[in-house]
Structure formats: structure tokens, C-alpha cells
Amino acid sequence: MLQEFKKFAMRGNVVDLAIGVIIGAAFGGIVASLVDDIIMPIIGAATGGLDFSNYFVPLSHNVNATALAEAKRQGAVFAYGSFLTKLVNFLIIAWVLFLVVKAINRFKRQQEAAPPPKPTLSENLLIEIRDLLRARQREI
Fold first, then answer.
1. Mind spelling out the 3-state secondary structure of 79-94?
2. Phi, psi of 118 (to 5 degrees)
3. Confidence class for position 21, pLDDT limits 50, 70, 90
4. 73: which residues sit within 8 A by CB, 6+ positions away?
């Protein structure tokens, strides 16, 4: 049974999937930092210094905090600012993946559309010899 699992785990698809998940997790961290540290502060500055991550609506009368983390400790809150940040994060990831897939597809099309290389002088001579031999065999 251990051998079967080893054979399964070492198949190309499983290894490729594992590599994809690891790279995806690392990429997710990079995009999260891009959104949290670069894009959202720019949006906040453009909107007058607003911080979307702290936007919430209290769902309990016990909540009187102004920061989301403290409000969550006090009771139930509707944290729509956090959702907006995660939505922007998702849209950026989806856009970057779209651009990557588009670039890969363009590269594949260029390779497929490239004309085959012209035969070398040796290849041309071999083609002529082949054609002469075929013609001679037809005569016989």
C-alpha cells in the first residue's frame, strides 16, 4: 500500500498540483501585500484618508468601538470594509492571472504560427537524391 501511495504521489499531476498550490499561496501573500500596503492606501488617500478595513456596521447594541478589531471583541459587526479589501484583492489576483494566461497563450500561438525552418543544404541534397531514387524505381 505504501508503494501504491508513493507511485500516486510521484505522478506528474500530483507534483504539479502541489507546486501550483505552494506558488499560489506565495503569490496570494504578494498580492495581499500589494493591496494592503500599496493600492488601498492610495485609494484611502484619494478618498480623504479613509481606511476601508475599519468600515463596519455594529449589529449589537454593545458595540461602541471605532476600530474593527475592538468592535469584534465587543459583539457582532457587519465588516463591509474588510470585505471590500478582500474583493479588491481577488480582482487583482484574477486580473494578474488573466494577463499571465493571455501571455502564455500568445507565446504558444507565436510558436505554432512560426514557419518551419528552411532545409539546410545537406537536407536539400538528400531530398533531391530521394526524389531521384523514387523516380528511378518507378521507371523499373
1. CHHHHHHHHHHHHHHH
2. -70, 145
3. confident
4. 65
Whole-number average pLDDT of the chain: 83
Q: Which has the closest alpha carbon to 89: 19, 30, 24, 21?
A: 30
Q: Which alpha helices (DSSP H) does the chain contain, by range?
A: 2-9, 12-33, 40-46, 68-74, 80-113, 121-139
**Joined grid coordinates for residue 114:** 512560426
Residue 9: band (very low, low, confident or very high) from pLDDT cuts 50, 70, 90: low
Q: Indicate left, alpha or beta for 48 from its phi (over 0: left) and psi (-120 to 50: alpha).
A: left
What region does 49 belong to: left with phi over 0, alpha with psi -120 to 50, or beta? left
* DSSP label at residue 101: H
C-alpha to C-alpha distance for 41 and 30, rounded to whole angstroms: 16
Is 106 a residue whose pLDDT tops 80?
Answer: yes
- Can you tell me whether residue 120 is helix, strand or coil? coil
**8-state DSSP, 63:** -
